[in-house]
């Protein structure tokens, strides 16, 4: 249990909202009053279990929308052609800038083409990408969120995404108040939008932006799409063209999304970030005519999609993209098909009717459309019989008069998209990476090597049981997801202090530097390779050193970085010390699961960013404490709060 609720079940605020009827079956006035305001605040409107209630239910939905528009006004932003792109943005992926599909660590360059190609093959393509930049490494030093977007080549990567037809979102962290202050947030965000040519903003932890920020962003990019996290207030649908449908629990019979019902051109993206079954999100998106968030790496944790749900999305997108106008302009009849466990919505426009079907059961179902003229859109179905796969979707269209011009293209795109039944989780395991210096790497002179290696502490070979302490973050720790099939993790399951045990085996004795490499010692290395040194103090630790360069220095003096276990064991030995100001230490414990690289840091730092639990852990830490630090590229891992020490094999 966590915070008074079962984390495997929705909280009360995640649950759908009742559409009220009087006890005698008559309609409640939803143009005003308490019931109308309750519906204004809903996420999803509950659908009736009894088909006999459908007419009254739909009448109530229409009544609420009429009243809500009278209370809050009819949105006009959606009439602006510059804003129209948002209603077509059905699939958005959230990607850490240094995801190994988006960034090549060997070449140290962004690879947006590789990321988009992979998504096209597995999911049917992307309409937008959120470039996630700062969290969960922000707070390691005084750099603010805008500094983390200052990566060489990122603007070119955004240009490449645009050339591939993918909209670009940037992220805004309103909680970032404890790092260095620069300009006003609205001005800084607007400048970032201009520099990267961003189309939209993901408002991290916010449901909506302040009107002043909206105005600044409108000036930076006409038609800017603002996308709040979770439920958006009805009155702000007018200036936010997108929103997340995050942690939206649906009714047993699929219900109606309140924000999209209010304004059909408002795009929502269903997302339950820790769930391994996305079938409920997909069918809600399908029946409502909205999109989904594809988020496979949550802040360094692999939460990939199963084969069935990926195939379902591939079957949805050609219909949603190709027949987009029917979805936003057609007459929408929710639950036009109500034959539990089979449900369907219709969208009628210009004499054509689009039927979208969803199966909530674990068995394939057969549906026979009523009336003549139906043309199934998915391969293998006939005009008489449509098979709706288990936990999947299907579609058909009936044309009276001129067919939509996109229809043949849609059918062709769906020809090879067959359903899949594989619901196994596509596990990835993080593995420890090894590093070997290049044969041509420079080596320090013998006297320098002996001088640097003179002050060490010894760690004997053997098997050790180590206690590791850490703070529970969304990054997880060594392997696996910290939250599986959970709704929103909250304290004490989030940000609490944890302890684990790990077995460390040292096959040979080692000697670990008694203190961090000093600025003076590191300057000797920079002199040798022809680079300027920032400082030469023999007492201060060398910092602002990338992980790669720290490894190169260690090899230069004939050693390597210590593993996190060697570092921790050395820290218990007499003679082990910390230079001041104290800084985190790089270790040779680099890991990758093929999508995320991370390094375990030890020791803590005197720097501590205050004001938010989302920041990296700060402060000087006991030897047992470990920090999983997601590894950025292009020099962004260099931090004034991170230094290093060297380890030598005892026989070296």
- Low-pLDDT regions: none
Record field, number of beta strands: 34
Could you give the order of strands across the largest sheet? 2-5-6-7-8-9-11-12
Shape: elongated
The secondary structure category is alpha/beta
Number of helical segments?
15
The overall pLDDT, averaged over residues, is 96
* CA-based gyration radius: 28 Å
Helix content: 10-25%
Main beta sheet: 8 strands, parallel, barrel
Separation, N- and C-terminal Cα atoms: 52 Å
Strand content range: 15-25%
Description:
The chain is an alpha/beta fold and 652 residues long. It is 23% helix and 23% strand. The strands form eleven sheets. It has an eight-stranded parallel barrel with strand order 2-5-6-7-8-9-11-12. A five-stranded antiparallel sheet has the order 15-16-17-21-19. A four-stranded antiparallel sheet has the order 22-28-29-32. Helix 5 runs parallel beside helix 6 and helix 9 runs antiparallel to helix 11. The mean pLDDT is 96.
What are the salient characteristics of this protein?
5-stranded antiparallel β-sheet, 15 helices, elongated
Tell me briefly what this model is:
It is built from 15 helices and 34 strands. It has 652 residues and is of the alpha/beta class.
Summarize the SSE layout with pairings.
Elements: H1 34-40, E1 44-45, H2 54-72, E2 91-96, E3 103-104, E4 109-110, H3 112-123, E5 128-132, H4 154-163, E6 167-172, H5 185-196, E7 200-203, H6 211-220, E8 225-228, E9 242-246, E10 256-257, H7 258-262, E11 267-271, H8 279-288, E12 291-294, E13 297-298, E14 301-302, H9 307-322, H10 324-329, E15 331-339, E16 342-349, E17 352-359, E18 365-367, E19 374-376, E20 386-388, E21 393-399, H11 407-414, E22 431-432, H12 446-452, E23 456-459, E24 462-471, E25 497-506, E26 510-513, H13 519-529, H14 547-556, H15 564-570, E27 584-585, E28 590-592, E29 597-602, E30 604-605, E31 619-620, E32 626-630, E33 642-643, E34 647-649
Parallel strand pairs: 2-5, 2-12, 5-6, 6-7, 7-8, 8-9, 9-11, 11-12, 27-33
Antiparallel strand pairs: 1-10, 3-4, 13-14, 15-16, 16-17, 17-21, 18-20, 19-21, 22-28, 23-26, 24-25, 26-34, 28-29, 29-32, 30-31
Helix pairs in contact: 5-6, 9-11
């Amino acid at each position: 249990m966590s915070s008074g609720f079962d984390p495997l079940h929705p909280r009360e605020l995640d649950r759908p909202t009742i559409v009220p009827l009087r006890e005698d079956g008559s309609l409640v006035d939803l143009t005003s009053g308490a019931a109308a305001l309750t519906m204004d605040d809903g996420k999803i409107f509950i659908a009736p279990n009894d088909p006999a209630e459908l007419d009254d239910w739909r009448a109530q939905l229409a009544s609420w929308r009429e009243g809500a528009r009278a209370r809050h006004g009819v949105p006009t932003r959606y009439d602006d052609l510059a804003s129209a792109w948002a209603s077509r943005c059905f699939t958005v992926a959230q990607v850490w800038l240094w995801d190994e599909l988006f960034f090549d660590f060997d070449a140290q360059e962004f690879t947006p083409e590789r990321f988009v190609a992979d998504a096209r093959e597995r999911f049917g393509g992307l309409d937008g990408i959120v470039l996630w930049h700062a969290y969960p490494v922000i707070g390691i030093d005084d750099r603010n969120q805008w500094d983390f977007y200052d990566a060489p080549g990122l603007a070119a990567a955004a240009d490449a995404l645009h050339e591939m037809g993918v909209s670009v979102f940037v992220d805004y962290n309103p909680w970032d108040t404890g790092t260095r202050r620069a300009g006003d947030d609205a001005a800084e965000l607007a400048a970032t939008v201009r520099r990267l040519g961003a189309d939209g903003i993901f408002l991290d932890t916010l449901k909506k932006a302040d009107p002043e920020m909206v105005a600044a962003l409108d000036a930076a990019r006409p038609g800017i799409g603002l996308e709040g996290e979770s439920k958006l207030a009805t009155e702000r649908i007018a200036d936010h063209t997108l929103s997340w449908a995050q942690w939206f629990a649906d009714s047993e019979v699929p219900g109606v999304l309140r924000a999209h019902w209010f304004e059909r051109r408002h795009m929502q993206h269903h997302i339950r970030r820790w769930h391994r079954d996305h079938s409920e999100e997909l069918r809600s998106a399908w029946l409502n005519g909205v999109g989904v968030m594809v988020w496979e790496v949550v802040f360094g944790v692999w939460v990939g999609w199963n084969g069935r749900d990926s195939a379902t999305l591939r079957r949805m997108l050609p219909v949603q993209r190709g027949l987009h106008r029917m979805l936003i302009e057609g007459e929408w009849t929710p639950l036009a098909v109500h034959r539990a466990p089979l449900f369907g919505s219709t969208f009628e426009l210009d004499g054509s009717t689009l039927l979208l079907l969803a199966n909530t059961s674990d068995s394939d179902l057969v549906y026979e459309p009523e009336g003549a003229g139906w043309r199934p859109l998915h391969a293998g179905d006939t005009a008489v019989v449509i098979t709706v796969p288990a936990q999947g979707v299907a579609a058909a269209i009936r044309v009276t008069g001129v067919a939509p011009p996109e229809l043949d293209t849609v059918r062709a795109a769906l020809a090879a998209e067959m359903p899949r039944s594989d619901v196994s989780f596509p596990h990835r395991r993080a593995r420890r990476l090894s590093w070997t210096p290049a044969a041509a790497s420079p080596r320090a002179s013998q006297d320098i090597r002996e001088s640097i290696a003179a002050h060490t502490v010894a760690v004997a070979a053997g098997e050790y049981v180590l206690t590791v302490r850490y703070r529970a973050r969304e990054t997880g720790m060594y392997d696996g997801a910290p939250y599986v099939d959970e709704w929103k993790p909250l304290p004490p399951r989030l940000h609490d202090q944890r302890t684990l045990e790990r077995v460390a085996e040292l096959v040979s004795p080692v000697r670990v530097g008694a203190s961090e490499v000093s600025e003076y010692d590191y300057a000797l290395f920079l002199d040798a390779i022809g680079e300027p040194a920032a400082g030469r103090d023999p007492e201060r630790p060398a910092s602002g050193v990338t992980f790669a360069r720290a490894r190169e220095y260690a090899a230069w003096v004939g050693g390597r970085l210590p593993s996190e276990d060697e570092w921790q064991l050395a820290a218990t030995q007499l003679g082990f010390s910390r230079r001041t100001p104290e800084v985190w230490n790089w270790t040779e414990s680099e890991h990758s699961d093929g999508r995320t690289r991370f390094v375990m840091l030890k020791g803590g730092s005197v720097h501590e960013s205050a004001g938010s639990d989302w920041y990296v852990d700060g402060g000087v830490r006991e030897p047992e404490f470990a920090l999983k630090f997601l590894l950025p590229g292009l020099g962004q891992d260099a931090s004034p709060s991170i230094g290093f020490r060297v380890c030598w094999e005892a026989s070296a």
